[in-house]
Amino acid sequence: MTKSGLDPLKFNARLDGKDIALYVLTNDNGLEVCITNYGGRVVTQLVPDRNGKLTDVQLGYDNIQDYLDNDGNFGALIGRYGNRIGNARFTLDGKEYQLPVNNGPHCLHGGPKGFDKKVWDAEQVDNSTLRLRLHSDDGEMGFPGNLDVTVVYRLTPDNALDIDYSATTDAPTVVNLTNHSYWNLSGDLSRSILDHEVMIDSHKITPSDETLITDGSTRDIIGTPLDFSAPKPLGRDINADYDQLINGNGYDQNFLLNRPGDINHVAATVYAPNTGILMEILTSEPGLQIYTGNFLDGSKGKFGVPYPARSAVAIETQHAPNTPNCPQYDSCVLRPGEQYHTRTIYRFKVK
Q1: How far is the C-alpha of 128 from the C-alpha of 44, rounded, in Å?
Q2: H helical segments located in the chain
Q3: SS3 call for 263
Q4: How far apart are CA 275 and CA 349, in angstroms?
Q5: How far is Cα 39 from Cα 224, in angstroms, rounded to an integer?
């Protein structure tokens, strides 16, 4: 059994001719992160609270069958394109590509069989490092180009989960990789996260319409319910009469960072007052999506714990949604001879 109580045998399976297993990362401080190569999903993550008690901060399941039977993205690697592409199509170099429609009229998270549904090739480099590789065929989910992806998870000595992504292609394509962990820092994964205090170093968003798609515009948010420039509880403004909150039934928004690409700058923080756990997010991406688990429905997760609405917050570092159709945003085009590379760090402290 792992420190978090998982039975690794319950993660052994075979899918699409590949073996699925559970991998355990540790550091010298006694922390533990458990990851399955099905979807590259973080299953559990133990971090210390203010009393030194190891606390699981990740929603997920305690066996592989539940991941296979449910359509959620708990802890998953997302690709080929994280977030939405409008009307499930885009044009690149004069050619239009049609993608699967799986979220209203749009394509979400790379389609119904994105990278979160794939069995990645796994190599445990050492006690604290897991390397995952995936080949995505030309035309898979409608995307052009053969894409080879490598993601390295590393549990660092300073109690951070460091995620390093890279990819190459043999034809022009679009790439936007991220991780879709659902965080709850309260010590009770069924508890509301509305008391979690969040800071995001951002003054602008990419506003979305009723179908949650962006159109290339930006909006200033200082003084609005989406202003997280100073830490505030998620619950303070979540039910405000504001179009972006109404459209998403809560927070489901892409923020443009004030210091895009600066991996050494804290782009956002999440703090749980009852445990003292503080999570810092550092990223080389230009933005991040905050989603407050608005559509979690109370279904049971690990060890029979229910996950009701707003019992987790996802913070997905990314390029803006619908970027392939919005040249105003930073390009997500990858061409032969180039290497896609991005990195995000989730670092844990106590306060």
Answers
A1: 14
A2: 64-69, 243-248
A3: coil
A4: 11
A5: 36
Helix (H, G, I), strand (E, B) or coil at 17: coil
Closest by CA position to 290, among listed 90, 54, 83:
83
C-alpha radius of gyration, the chain, whole number: 19
Closest CA to 57 of 33, 87, 39: 33
pLDDT digits (tens, 9 = 90+) for 236-293: 999 999 999 999 999 999 999 999 999 999 999 999 999 999 999 999 999 999 999 9
User: Residue 245 in 3-state DSSP?
Assistant: helix
How many CA atoms lie within 13 Å of 251's alpha carbon, on the beta-carbon side? 31
**Token reading at 7:** 């039975």
CA distances from 250 to 8, 215, 267, 270, 288 (A): 36, 20, 21, 17, 16
Could you check whether the bond before residue 80 is cis, i.e. omega within 30 degrees of 0? yes
The domain spans of the chain are 8-350
Does the pTM surpass 0.85? The reply is yes
> Is there a contact between 116 and 109 (Cβ–Cβ < 8 Å)?
yes
289: tokens are: 């999506």
Q: Which residues make beta-bridge pairs with 14?
A: 19
Q: How many whole angstroms separate alpha carbon 318 and alpha carbon 80?
A: 12
> What is the CA angle 275-281-282, rounded to 5?
150
Tell me the residue length of the chain.
Answer: 351
Return the active site residues: 180, 316
Beta bridge partners of 152: 131, 164
21-68: pLDDT as tens digits: 999 999 999 999 999 999 999 999 999 999 999 999 999 999 999 999
Burial class (CB in 10 A: 0-12, 13-18, 19+), 126: exposed
Residue whose entry in the numeric block shows the structure tokens 């991998």: 23
Answer whether 147's CB lies under 8 Å from 177's CB.
no
Reply yes or no on domain 8-350 having CATH 3.30.390.30: no
